[in-house]
Amino acid sequence: MKSFSDQASDMDFLTPGSDAQDIADQLRQIVSPDQTRIVMREWSQSAAFNHLGLPAKYVLQQNIQNYQDISLAARYRLYEKVGFISPILMFSAPGPGMAAFAVSGLGTEQQQDAFFSRFQETLGWSCFAMTEPEQGSDAGAMETRASPVRNGYLISGRKMFIGNGMIADTGVVFARTAPGPLGINAFIFNPQVAEISRYALELNGLKGTNLAHIEFNDVFIPEENMLGRHLKPTERFAKSAIATFDALRPCVGALALGVARRALHEWQSHLQLTVSQSAWLSQTERRWLAVYHHALRSCQQTDDKQPPDSHPGMVKTSCVILADEIISWLIHDTPAGNMPLLNKLWQAFRDVKAFEYTEGTRQIHRLNQGFSRRQRMSTCL
Question: Could you tell me which Pfam families the record lists for this protein (predicted)?
Fold first, then answer.
């Protein structure tokens, strides 16, 4: 008897291609970051993902799946379905990525043209350089500096856990131009200039993802590459980093739910379930669907410009906690001798653990939720 874990939750939305699993398996085996480009160019859906988040006016090819200018709810659904195949596909895919949110929210027409046009006809990779080795994603404690010089800025500092940082052609970096929260600004930059050093990070979870440690050594950024110069300082940060994180945190949760659904699929396919296991599976399916639709509702509310019922960070946290719990239970309930299944489940376990640190840990989100709640109460009072 088939269950929800045997098929995608939105059959009409994404056709990942029959080669998707093979491409994901190849990505997990790469030994050099440059191999990512070679492997991804072979994927039948790479051109579609290259346009994910691309404003519609920049799309020249009309014979590919329509992912440009995608809504947050649609992105959430897409991430879950890719997570079911392999989250490596999403983390290694070409496209404007997280940087697109900052450029769309802060960039002038000229800056948007320069940034997005590179994704029109050829595959390109981008990065979003904010997290730091010592400060994490705490923007208030950011140490990377952008010192004003003639016609631009010199950026010095270190960034950590930068997705696609080893292969990115372009990106957005956050640096401090002055003390305090209003002194943080975003800049479009070229990750491949000589003054930038990039180091690949060794991974257990999400193996094959090109996470990087990036060092900026007096990197010159032209003045015209500073985003949001036409906006008030109070508008800049809210429209860049905060908006990006709030938008994508539920999508990270969707990836985790996709991994959990795949683990359930593998477990159910390899075992003859007992009565108690079948009862647990039915209960777990209901819990999974409840969390999935709760997060989807949050995305739809954001699309409708309504305050979401739940803090975006806590939406992501709820998804990851449930996925972690499901996969852990499956591992403990699988016979020790069934190594093919256990290998798949342990891979899922490592991947889901990595999501805990993607877009902030659960403890950070709990603190943010508590702080936001106190702010609302003070406003009401």
Answer: Acyl-CoA_dh_M (PF02770)
